[in-house]
Amino acid sequence: MPSVKLVTDSACDIDPQYLERLGVRVVPLTVRFGEETYLDNYEMRGKTFYDKLRTSEVLPRTSSPSVGDFHKVFDELTADGSGVVAILLSEVLSGTYQAAQMAASMLPDRRIAVINSKTASVGYGLIVLEAHDVAEQGAGFEEVRDAAQSMVDNLVTMYAVDTLDYLYKNGRIGRAKHFWGSTLNLKGILVLDKEGYVSGLDRVRGRSKIIPRLIELAGERIPYGSRVKLGMCHADVPGEGAKLVAAAKEKWQVVRTVETEIGAVIGIHNGPGTLALILLPVE
Fold first, then answer.
1. Closest among 217, 275, 272, 208 to 47, alpha carbons compared
2. 38-49 burial by CB neighbour count: b if 16+ within 10 A, else e?
3. Is residue 167 part of a domain?
4. Co-location of 10 and 120 in the same domain
5. Structure pTM?
6. Which of 157, 164, 177, 195, by CA, is between 20 and 30 Å from 226?
7. Which phi and psi (to 5°) does residue 187 adopt?
């Protein structure tokens, strides 16, 4: 019986070499610093990216994969009759999902499901790993597709930014909010809503209050003591990431943990010091 193959993009921030060893195909986005171009998470990742971001005189940009990039991958993977489930960066944050949808429409006789994760970074990196496990257990195309969609619908993603500078530089907040937030040492806490949009949730004064507030706000959405799968990603603050994981494990029954660094695609907008907590309830 034809197998089910998984596809994702590099902004899921799981090491692409690791995913490829699992058999998950990764389609990379592109990072540009002026005339310099890098493949996201292949040629530019982690501390190397953040060191360059802090010192660059130009504001970096990212580019989504092309329709052709996805068409080539989908055509290759489905040529033997296999189905493909592609789990991708939130539609409202990137053109990646739209490019994949268009590529799938060009192969109408193939079984291709393109899923809008409505989240970012390890939020859908966790879903990709879970969907891979479902496929490995022998589930069919529809089962893997439906399991991935169910996870999208139940995932909780929230994060805190250390500075408002990058949101301001990228036009996400106005001058007044940037000025007062920076002056008062406010750290924004944000959530990705059910459609994948970024919404302001709260503000805390000082970095020491970030982790307790993230834990508290997450507990309002998923009761303490629940069984969950945990995702944590950080932007060049591994020590604080470890503290967030430890704090979460004191409140929930964590049955799986996936930790990673936030890559360039999200890091460009939120900057160093960002810390994210992702919870997936276990039914």
1. 272
2. bebbeebbbeeb
3. yes
4. yes
5. 0.93
6. 195
7. -110, 120
